[in-house]
Amino acid sequence: MESSLRETAIAHAPFFVTGPGQSDVLFTIIVWFIILTVFGLGALYLSLHALPERLAHHANHTQIQLISILTLLALFTHNNLFWLAALVIAVVQVPDFYTPIKSIADALKAMARQRGAISDSAAPAPVSDGATASDISNTTTAQENHKDV
Question: Cα separations (Å) of 27 from 10, 21, 23, 31, 97?
Answer without folding.
Answer: 19, 14, 9, 6, 63
